[in-house]
Design a protein that fits this description.
heterodimer; A: 182 residues; Rna Polymerase Sigma Factor, Chain: A; Arc Repressor Mutant, subunit A; B: 356 residues; alpha+beta; 2 domains; 7 helices
């Protein structure tokens, strides 16, 4: 995640809380990729991902004054992002696009010997993961949360987060790797 | 795949995430992977996945999100402004009671209780209402000027404004008249745009033309000079600036005519602020930012300014980062509402607190 270092981020948050829109924009630019990537993998649809990014940052702007800095900003951001995607799904605004297994085959290179994996193949493979596994992987890899932070945010034991992340990786390896399904 | 494979792959996965793993376990996993094709493939695939970039938010998404956030900001500001207005009015009423009639003049122009009192009891834009009579008189003659294509400065005369054949024209943007049809509105070139109102600068303070005095008031006293072209066809020249007992206004004279100008002011949080600008020396030139503030590059004021709030009329207040807008002044973006003191000005403007 291309986020600012913690000190710089704290400064940006403090300034944004005082109404500095430039600071808020810097925060947005630093974290928009993670939010977008999570939403894109959740919905499989760039338009829905854009809606989610907008909604997440509007929510953040609204509630920025309540952020006390006790938790890491990225933890808060992940929670808001996750809940926003789930809310959009539950409200029927957006629904994840189903994954066609044929796509998974088609999008991975046939030349397994070279082990060339392109980004599109990876994104399709991501969509094939179990939602809870993908969510845990997203928390750890996109938002940079520790297992403990992810566990607290997802309200599950640390061991469960570890298992979900591992399961997600094995599934990705299974789809994308030389000995995989693809 | 057996248990040792799962263990090795789990350790690799956790190591990737920066989790604390016993070095001995890592070593065991390394040895296992070097001799197990399946686990080596797992590690290799993970490494390949790791090298791939995650999806990035396109710039269009960031821009649309910023626009949404700005929309939300405006909505919240409006709510806050509405809530604050009642409190501000109470504060203004209290200030009104405290203010005295006037304060000693400083170089012939200083803040007065009267000005502050007026600002505290009226919306900031209402100060302009006081100019209506003078502007209306000017407009009557402006029509003649427009038709005849005459200069805007009268020949020397001591007659009243309404009796003159031609006069310095300062059409009020809120008034009506044929003269407005002949003038350029809405030009967008910074600092060079033609204004719908005539301005001069004394130092950095911006004054707006409000009328013509019949003669030099007895109390008039020279306090400085200004460089201005008083019509559209003349070159700028140095003119005397006189104070005449009204600390909100000055007279500008070439020794024969006495043109009255008043400070351009606005209220914010119960205080009075006056516009400052780099020199306005051409007729119909809009005021712009003082020299010390570079023109913002973006609509949000950056990199020069950052948003600091909104006034009671929901006009966004901008400030220099780290600066207190109430104590040090603030900037206003172009395109303010029609009833704003900066209405029509295509430039950013700066508003400084009136000196005590």
């Amino acid at each position: 995640m291309a986020a600012a270092p913690r000190d710089e981020e704290r400064d940006l948050i403090a300034r944004a809380q005082q109404g500095d829109m430039g600071a808020f924009e810097s925060l947005l630019r630093a974290h928009a990729d993670a939010v977008y990537a999570h939403a894109l993998r959740f919905f499989g649809d760039p338009v829905a991902a854009e809606d989610a990014v907008q909604e997440v940052f509007v929510k953040l702007y609204r509630s920025l004054s309540s952020f006390d800095g006790n938790a890491a900003f990225s933890t808060w951001l992940f929670r808001v992002t996750r809940n926003t995607c789930l809310d959009m799904f539950r409200a029927g605004k957006r629904r994840p696009i189903p994954v066609d297994p044929i796509d998974l085959v088609a999008r991975t290179t046939p030349d397994h010997a070279d082990r060339v994996i392109d980004a599109a193949a990876l994104e399709h493979a991501m969509r094939a993961l179990q939602p809870e596994d993908r969510e845990a992987l997203s928390a750890v890899t996109l938002f940079g949360l520790s297992y403990g932070e992810a566990a607290a945010t997802l309200s599950v034991p640390v061991g469960t987060v570890k298992s979900r992340v591992f399961r997600a990786r094995r599934m990705l390896a299974s789809i994308l790797g030389p000995g995989g399904d693809a | 795949m057996d248990e040792s494979c799962l263990d090795a792959q789990r350790i690799v996965s956790e190591t990737y995430d920066g989790a604390h793993v016993d070095p001995a376990e890592i070593q065991r996993a390394r040895i296992h992977c070097s001799s197990c094709g399946q686990c080596a493939a797992f590690v290799s695939t993970l490494a390949a996945v790791r090298r791939l970039p995650d999806p990035r938010a396109p710039e269009t998404v960031i821009e649309s999100t910023l626009a949404k956030v700005d929309e939300e900001r405006r909505r919240l500001d409006a709510e806050a402004a509405a809530a604050a207005q009642a409190a501000a009015e109470q504060e203004a009423a209290a200030r009104q009671a405290d203010e005295t009639a006037s304060e000693p003049s400083k170089n012939g122009r200083a803040a007065t209780g009267r000005l502050r009192q007026r600002l505290s009891t009226l919306p900031s834009w209402a100060v302009y209402g006081g100019y209506a009579a003078a502007a209306a008189a000017a407009l009557i003659v402006a029509g003649i000027v427009a038709v005849q294509g005459a200069k805007y400065i009268a020949t020397p005369t001591t007659e009243s404004a309404s009796d003159q054949d031609v006069i310095y024209v300062a059409p009020d943007s809120g008034a009506t008249g044929d003269a407005e049809d002949t003038r350029s509105f809405g030009a967008e070139t910074t600092g060079q745009a033609e204004s719908s109102v005539a301005y001069i600068t004394v130092g950095e303070w911006v004054y707006e033309f409000t009328g013509v005095e019949d003669s030099q008031p007895p109390s008039a006293e020279k306090i400085g000079t200004t460089t201005s072209a008083l019509d559209t066809s003349s070159a700028p020249r140095t003119l005397d600036v006189l104070a005449f007992g009204d600390p909100e206004a000055v007279l500008v004279t070439d020794g024969e005519r006495f043109l009255r100008f008043e400070l351009v002011t606005r209220g914010y949080r119960g205080s009075a602020y006056a516009m400052q600008s780099r020199a306005v020396s051409a007729f119909d030139q809009w005021p712009s930012l003082p020299e010390r503030y570079p023109e913002p590059e973006l609509e949000d004021g950056s990199p020069t300014f950052t948003r600091a709030g909104a006034d009671a009329n929901r006009v966004t207040i901008y400030t220099v980062e780290g600066m207190d807008p109430i104590r040090n002044g603030f900037a206003i973006a172009p395109d303010t509402p029609p009833d704003d003191p900066a209405a029509g000005n295509p430039n950013w403007t700066w508003w400084a607190p009136l000196p005590e």
